[in-house]
Fold:
Amino acid sequence: MAPYESDESTTVEEADDLRAGRRKAARYVVPVAVVGVAAATIGLVPAIADSGDPDLPDITAQQLIEKIAKSDVEQLSGTFKITTDLGLPDLGGLESSFASGAMASGSGDGSSADPSAKLTELASGTHTLRLAVDGENKQKLSLLENASEYSLIHNGKDIWGYDSKSNEVYHGTAEEAQEEKGKAEEAPATPQEFTEEALKAVDDTTSVTVDGTAQVAGRDAYRLVVKPKQSGTTVGAITVAVDAETGMPLKFTLTPSSGGAAVIDAGFTQVSFAKPDASTFDFTPPKGAKVTEEGALEGAADQHGSAKSEGEFRKEFEKEFGGPKSEGKAPEGGPEIIGEGWNSVAVFDTGGEGVPSGAEVGGEMGGFLDSLGDKTTGKFGSGTVFKTRLINALMTDDGKVYVGAVDKATLVKAADSGK
Structure:
């Protein structure tokens, strides 16, 4: 620990000033095609042990937040790890069953190099990635596997995905990806963006302090700690290691209120802010590789009726789970929000029946459903709570869904208040 430790928390006014002046996503973000996927996979944030205790000048929490907001790193290369532990049950033999079903339904005709499918692997376990960035129009992200590598390259107007294991190539354009991204709210995709999203929660329900210093990837950094003041949330604390020189977040760790291992433990193991070699972003499909154009994937989906683009899935989700019209509704047609701060719960109305029980489904699938959910009752009636170590959801038997980073009791309270 450094010889100082600031207990100064940011005020509501300071947080408002920060939000007003916060820049758009830093220009070193990964290709725009990844953004939607990153939201679903908890984002591209990695894991690494801290070392050292550098002696750095004192800094307040507000000053460190401002340093993050002003960070404008345009060139970098490095290696980082992602460890995600949501506490999901082991699917066992169901994985192969689901895969067989997908192939039978025609979704297997898509490309294994499509980032919307490949990067979902980051949702669990530990993964090593390499990142190279040279401004807004050149980025490369590589997922290193045992005997293969998956790369996603953004170079000018082109976006390439390459899966060396299957020798398949995906090709799209930055314009198409940007149009798809524009259909939804901007999602976090890098440690910096994730940090900015976390700092949006800075209000009177949140404590933000500077907790000493650390070394990450050989660089001196300050520790910024964000903690909910409310009970009932599944978030215990968020710790960000902020590069003392550039203000760029080097590590992002989210620990649950239940204790134990981090839900997300992420950080660079090596990083350089030198300009990457231009050849890093060059890509030509290897000889014999199967190349799938972005539009061709949508055509295959139309023929088989199962594999759909991200935009199509979003439209269907909004149609099926559109939030109820009420005064608590979020802007732009979003779901109703119950509660505040870290205890906010989003409410969707499916307009149908709730989840069937394992007994109703039967077999291996029925056992899987029972392992996921806990039956519960309240003033709202009855329903099933589906739990992870971070996000929990209550689906009532009359078809309403309550979702938030909150515990079971808070979900039930929200459902009861909705009656």
